Amino acid sequence: MSLPSTMRVSVLDTPGKLRLEERPVPVPGPGEVLVRIASVGVCGSDTHYYREGRIGPYVVESPLVLGHEASGRVEAVGDGVDPARVGTRVSLEPGIPQPYSAETLSGHYNLDPGVRFFATPPVDGVFSEYAVHPAAFSHPVPEHVSDDAAALLEPLGVALAARAAGKVQLGNRVLVAGAGPIGLLVSAVCSLAGAEVTLTDVRAERLEQARRYGASGTFTAAGAPVPAPEYQVFIDATGAESAVLSGLSRLAPRGRCVLVGMGSDTIAVPVPLIQGRELLITGTFRYANTWPLAVEIASRGLIDLDGLVTSRHGLDDVEAALVAGARDGALKAVVTP
User: Fold this and answer.
1) What is the per-residue pLDDT across 87-104, written as a single tens digit (0 to 9) for each?
2) What is the pTM of this model?
3) What distance in Å separates the CA atoms of residue 174 and residue 218, rounded to the nearest whole number?
4) What residue ranges of the chain have pLDDT lower than 50?
5) Pairwise CA distance, residues 67 & 154, whole Å
6) Dihedral of alpha carbons 56, 58, 63, 66, sign
């Protein structure tokens, strides 16, 4: 089957303004594959760029294609890539690091300062019908894994990185703040590790999903009493200062705090509490080396990735996808180019 010469792309011109554009279908270079995009999950970062035009130091200064949680099927390959990969289904790991940086060589390629990441200015994302990507970061997925689930291996990778950073073990009591897609997946992977998970959120309708994703105890943060310190691990998926401070107060001595959510640029932390309990605080930045385990989890149906999807949208309906998260009961909007 011959490929078309052009494709449709959703472009963010300026904050709040999207348009459809016809662009040439890209040609894969050495070591690359051309992927027909099947499903793209909408991340909170996409919504932030759409509404605000920036996230911290990353500023939209020219037209940008959003979208970085993607799956699809290989349609063509560049030099050096096995032609047998044509026709295979893949999940795209959206960050492309420099191959010989100190961070990449140490295995922490997510921290490479030169990484090029889908939909992070000025790098285009994949709200498009086709995209080229390195074959090494286009991970094969089994046919029985849906396109949506294959795309959501990306947020699953975020959750797996958070679990690893918190050193979650069998029998740990884990507190997770935020019952959005990331918080639910963090809850699920910690439960798979044998932890007892409590999930908090200020939106009661989101907590209705909590038990489906491994949480054994749930309560809303609004007006809830602060119990005695009892958790070995606290993972924040909100970025809200109030949630972080509340979670820190609930950590037992030598407890571990992992900051995943992006919200407040600075937080006034309770130093006496941190010192007195010898709390350990770390952050996570995306993920590294998570896709093999994520593919295995999806392949075995250990986590219901498809259950996170609450709406689907075409390329001509990207704006609705980007604002869908504000609706009651909404979790994950998906764009299907």
Assistant:
1) 999 999 999 999 999 999
2) 0.95
3) 12
4) 222-223, 226
5) 11
6) negative
The most distant pair of C-alpha atoms in the chain lies apart, rounded to whole Å, by 66
Cross-strand pairs, 213: none
Q: Where do runs of H (alpha helix) occur along the chain?
A: 44-52, 102-105, 147-151, 153-165, 181-192, 204-207, 241-249, 271-277, 291-299, 318-323
- In whole angstroms, give the CA distance from residue 70 to residue 147: 9
CA triplet 252, 256, 258: central angle to 5 degrees? Answer: 135
The token pair at 57 is 């130091």
Within 8 A by CB and 6+ apart from 223, the residues are: none
Report how far residue 139's alpha carbon sits from residue 87's, in angstroms, rounded to the nearest whole number.
Answer: 13
CA-based nearest residue to 159, from 312, 57, 305: 305
* CB distance 41 to 119 below 8 Å: no
Phi/psi region, residue 39 (left: phi>0; alpha: psi -120 to 50; beta: rest), is beta
Tokens representing residue 260 in the block: 């995943």
Q: Pick from 172, 139, 149: which is nearest to 302 by CA?
A: 149
pLDDT of residue 330: 85
pLDDT of residue 222: 45
CA distance 302 to 316: 33
Closest to 3 measured CA to CA, from 22, 24, 21, 20: 24
pLDDT of residue 286: 96
- What gap in Å lies between CA 142 and CA 295, rounded to an integer? 8
